[in-house]
Amino acid sequence: MAGWQALREELVTQVRAHGISGGVAEAFRAVPRHVFLPDLPPETVYRDDAIVTKRDADGRPISSSSQPAIMALMLDQLGVEPGQRVLEIGTGTGYNAALLAHLVGPGGQVVSVDIDADLVERAREHLIDAGHPEVTVVCGDGGEGFTPAAPYDRVIATVGVWDLSPAWLDQLGPEGRVVAPLDVRGVQRSVAMERAGGHWTSRSVVPCGFMRMRGPFAGPETTLMLDRASDLAISLPGAGEIGDVLAALEGPAVEMPTGASASRAQLHDGLSLWLAMHEPRWCMMSEAQPRWLASPPLDLSGFTMAAGIIDGDSLCLLEPEVDDTLIVRGYGPERTRLATDLVDHVNAWDGAGRPMTAGLRIDAYLETAPPEGLLIHKRHTTLALSWNAD
């Protein structure tokens, strides 16, 4: 493990470049990530990448060590203070729980819940090896929270959630805050929420991407593994029927210029959110090894990603050129029609002033009636979305 200290310092430097607070950065400096990923070389462990740690029978990733930069952003959103009690949903390797334990200090308490018994057992071992045996790790359905240790000052979900669980909100103290990667019609945004009268309102919203919650609290969004060799997968906002995607990608393509340019950050942030809000056929494709996607539009967390539209045996994807000029590539028998629709969406987003996540406000209503506007109805809550005028 020689040389991991220098690699960890480099990771801390990269994390701080995202505007992370000194306290959270110090937690990353104090907690060794390699203890939670003992089978990997330090050169891999200390990259600012997500690392898949478990797959299901179909080869789909179902657990990972999250990208450190995203973890840091969410910990800053959480605003953990020494002495607080924190509930974490999704233990994974235990690394984030150790960061939380460092932040709350000896006077605080961290409870972490995971649905997989094998992950829970390994996380307990990792936490002991890292010097944090005080963390309580529970095997159970995270959607139920953990009543015996409530109330909590903070609740954080490190797994993509379709809706806010009423149990989390009930187990929070009066001044509590919840941070969760919340589904917004198929895209995820990490939302920090606090009570505001009879509902919950966002204090900050940032882009993110997490594996989805499993069990009774899972949502309708679907991820399908298309090619295990490259980890090519497609994510859909709901349970939809799709055709032979690989055959379409291997067939003839049509290219259409959009007349617009955008950085990869704008694609991942504003344009993907616009598609989710305005296009029910929208999809996101990703792969870990270059093979199927013509270019890397969204190189995040160790995966190449591309947003687009899918309809049966046809699909189209947004892809930037070297100069960030956006083009659309269409595949399948209806490639021209879909590509035209996607170009129209790009132009509409551009004409609307390119709204981004930074100006997004999300209010969650459990019992009181939400105001008129852009509403998303969930199982337990209704989300009301709006953008700040500035």
From TrEMBL:
GO terms for molecular function: protein-L-isoaspartate (D-aspartate) O-methyltransferase activity. Gene3D superfamilies: Vaccinia Virus protein VP39. The keyword Membrane does not apply. It is found in: Cytoplasm. Signal peptide: none annotated. SUPFAM superfamilies: S-adenosyl-L-methionine-dependent methyltransferases (SSF53335). It is an enzyme of class 2 (transferase). Its EC number is 2.1.1.77. GO terms for cellular component: cytoplasm. GO terms for biological process: methylation. The keyword Methyltransferase applies. Keywords: Cytoplasm, Methyltransferase, S-adenosyl-L-methionine, Transferase. NCBIfam families: methyltran_FxLD. Belongs to the methyltransferase superfamily. L-isoaspartyl/D-aspartyl protein methyltransferase family. PANTHER family: PROTEIN-L-ISOASPARTATE O-METHYLTRANSFERASE, PROTEIN-L-ISOASPARTATE(D-ASPARTATE) O-METHYLTRANSFERASE. This is Protein-L-isoaspartate O-methyltransferase.
